[in-house]
Amino acid sequence: MSRNKRTIVILIADDDAEDRMLVKDALEENRLTNEIQFVENGEELVDYLHNRGRFTDKTQYPTPGLILLDLNMPKKDGREALKEIKADEHLRVIPVVVLTTSKAEEDILRTYDLGVSSFITKPVTFAALVDVMKTLTKYWFEIVELPKA
């Protein structure tokens, strides 16, 4: 099986149900066949990555090849979750793309400092989101060489 043919799971961490659906729809609009998993806060994200709690089934909740991370979430925000992910030797290789409404310079600097792969401000329109997802998925799944999960 060639490494480009394996299914890369996209894990989307976002507390806003409407945003989750918009991102999913934008990915589907681009005919992306990747499996998409969702978590609603930073605690769920970290539990998912460690297969804890309701995420213990590794076949149902496989290690993602890419994490799309919102910064402003309840319980544990994206910044805290990112810090934990990048501090873990097994998880730090997973590319994390921040997809957030924040345009704060301090968020941009801090997340790059913590090891985020890219920082994207959520587009306002669905058409713009479809374009962003098209570029993002082309880059991460066709151009970049990702480590084997």
From TrEMBL:
Q: Which InterPro entries match?
A: CheY-like_superfamily (IPR011006), Sig_transdc_resp-reg_receiver (IPR001789), TCS_response_regulator (IPR052893)
Q: Give UniProt keywords alphabetically.
A: Phosphoprotein
Q: What CDD domains is this protein classified in?
A: REC_Rcp-like
Instruction: One Pfam family, please name it.
Output: Response_reg
Keyword Phosphoprotein among record annotations: yes
In the UniProt record, does the keyword Phosphoprotein occur? yes
Domain Response regulatory residues, every copy: 9-137
Tell me the residues on which 4-aspartylphosphate occurs. D70
> Tell me, which GO biological process terms does this entry list?
phosphorelay signal transduction system
Which region is the signal sequence?
A: none
Question: Transmembrane stretches, by residue range?
Answer: none
Name of the protein in its database record: Response regulator
**Species per Swiss-Prot/TrEMBL record:** Rufibacter glacialis
